[in-house]
Design brief:
The complex is a heterodimer of chains A (about 280) and B (about 260). In chain A, about 75% of the residues lie in helices and about 0% in strands. By secondary structure, chain A is mainly α. The chains are: A mainly alpha (about 280), B alpha/beta (about 260).
Chain lengths: ~280, ~260
Amino acid sequence: MSGNTDFTPPPASLFSAGRIGAMALRYFYLLRNSWPRLIEMAYWPTMQMILWGFVTKFFIGESSWIAGAAGVLLAGVLLWDILFRGQMGFAICFLEEMWSRNLGHLFVSPLRPHEFVAALMTMSLVRTLIGALPPALLAIVFYQFSIFSLGLPLVAFMACLFFMGWGVGLLVIGVILRFGLGAESLAWVLVFAFAPISAVYYPVETMPEWLQTVAWCTPSAYVFEGMRAVLFDGDFRLDLIAGAMVMNVIYFAIGAFIFWLAYRSARRDGRLLQLGE
Amino acid sequence: MSKAVIDVRDLEKRYGAVHAVRGVGFTAEAGTTVGLLGGNGAGKTTTIAMMLGLLEPTGGSVSILGCDMATDRYRALPFMNFSSPYVDLPHRLTVRENLMVYARLYSVPDPKTRIAELAMQLDMEDFMNRPSGKLSAGQKTRVALAKALINTPKVLLLDEPTASLDPDTGDWIRTYLETYQRENGATLLLASHNMQEVERLCSKVLMMRKGEIVDRGSPADLLAKYGRKTMDEVFLDVARQTGAANRKQEDRETA
């Protein structure tokens, strides 16, 4: 018998791209094995885009504001979807582990919680792009509006919205980890609480003054104001991007803290073994 | 003197006023199998969860492969693994896909070869491309074991590894575990209700009741001590002393 009496494990790595890749592979397999999931990802964004495309066509003749930048509503729809899908993709991948009662296996593997979060971010990016690309291309064909005409600012807007989605996503999975699957609907609904104050389809100044203060506490309001500045004035407002980034740091820090608290409490109360359907 | 691969000292888990585990301590040397025995709610799964780091102990310490599991568990985890009926593998992924994901999580070199090897050894070749959720109980147990062995662990924690299996499959799994241990010098911790399994595999048995170790020794020692012919009878002797109290504690833990 070759015993392991004298075996001493080598120091563990703090971060492994291989382990993040393994988790991304797990979600890739899931998508590959389920074509309805793939179709569903692009279905709602496409429907939204078609609906708002007709609304835009109608308002171009009726509203001088819309006529000033025909793509403002469509750009709003497509960018809002980045935030919504980014947050949902993040939380749904986590829910997949709870639905399949797999968290116990994952948390006794060498996968560290921050690597797990990095894998969720990666898959949120992939899932959102799968969902957002078809409607973005259809908008060019049907309504002669290309979101890509925003140019480089589009990358900045998308990055800010993804980060906000991940911050909110961390908060959501933290709450689900703490309170169980009874709270899973948060993965779908929480982000909509930000819709009225994100100034997606109307400027922040449309809101009552007190609500404007609240709106400026969301990264998304800066992004959508920035989007309108590009579309109406051709002006890429770095101050608005900076505002979004500062807010994102706060959102991400709060989300990460809530997740950390929930993970710690799950380890203390033994919920990592019990979580599931 | 050989160094203990598993060293558990004065382990304790309290939920409010309820002691789920109290004062548990034992060691396991390389290449040995330790059995955790006890009725439902005796504290076996709680002890294993604390050893893995899934559950934070209220007191005491766990050291595995020389690593303190409270502060340094990520050093030990690549060389450990476990299987439990309380956790599943993703149902929609095929057996092969599940094993590939875990092979990569454990940084197994040449994962395809390792998976093929396990598929052959555990007789899983016929259902490697079937979704894990569509397997029979026996097939699921073999897949869970394959996942637990994917990284050729030096320490293997098995919570009821042959529960719900027919006697033939159960015996087959036990033979496989014996072979694995002989070839790899692995240290096994086994929580089980199957006394034949314990008698056959374990060199040391810890009898648990109400979260505490109430007796310990080799199966032969315990048989002699209780004056019984089988471990089933020893188990009943220990469990029936406070069977009703155990159920009450289990109810409290579940609540």
